[in-house]
Amino acid sequence: MTLPEKDIIDLKKAKILLENPGIAAKITNLLGMPLEKGFKMLPQNWHEKISEITSVALTKAVDTAVFTMKDMQKEKTSNFWHKIAVAATGGAGGFFGLPALAFELPVSTTIMLRSIADIARSEGESISSEETKLACIEVFALGGETSGDDSSEMGYFAIRTALARSLSQAAEFVAEKGLAEEGAPAIIRFVLQVAERFSIQVSEKAAAQAIPALGAAGGALINTLFIDHFQDMARGHFTVRRLERKYGKELIKEAYDIL
């Protein structure tokens, strides 16, 4: 089966977004200096602390962002206003420095998750669908590696495959029991697996904000870049999902690999 030209173009655009350079490269280009300088300025136990902050931030965002959005279809998204909101939180974080991350990140993550859901809705997803809500959370796993990753196998579909089992278990629990307390363990396992990858990007953001004299303006720029990255991931992800609904997962993956 051959895809229509319009859908091939959409898939190409999605692949360009999803296989883009990671957030570290983008931050390095913005600052004009490598992030290694910032990493050296982080506290000794920064990795464990950031992992903890990331897990808490993502869990809070899940509870307050997607699950409170109205399920109405619209083509236009509010990307600009979401960027303004995240830039404001980044400005505050930049002003108060690294210690503010624990307070700033949950707010920023909630705003970003709402933006992701907004993009999902514009690509024909139903926000009332529990599968869509989980797919919105999945976006935070895109574009970042973990220490156990084989760099040659870190493409978009490889990440989805790595998350597939925990995503399936979470979806089964939610389908059977809704968002009741009984379903929480499966959801938590999925969120924690996503948070493991999300923490990579958060670490890179923290390293940038640890650089002296970055200040409030620099914090706002870093956060704008941060949300822009995940908006790109969301647009690519939900474009692929839209095409999968239309043609099937196997055909779209084959076409994606060929491009």
* Mean pLDDT over the full residue set: 79
Total beta-strand segments: 0
What sequence of helices (H) and strands (E) makes up the elements? HHHHHHHHHHH
Between the first and last Cα atoms, what is the distance in angstroms? 15 Å
Helix content: over 70%
Which structural class do the helices and strands define? mainly alpha
Number of domains: 1
- Gyration radius, rounded: 18 Å
Largest sheet: none
Poorly predicted runs of 5 or more residues: 90-96
Total helical segments:
11
Structure in words:
It is built from eleven helices and no strands. It is an all-alpha fold and 259 residues long. α6 packs parallel to α10 (215-247), α7 (130-138) packs antiparallel against α8 and α10 (215-247) packs across α11 (249-258). It has one domain. It has helices at residues 5-18, 23-31, 36-40, 46-64, 79-96, 101-122, 130-138, 156-177, 184-209, 215-247, 249-258.
Task: Please tag this protein with its features.
single chain; 259 residues; 0% strand
Fold topology:
Elements: H1 5-18, H2 23-31, H3 36-40, H4 46-64, H5 79-96, H6 101-122, H7 130-138, H8 156-177, H9 184-209, H10 215-247, H11 249-258
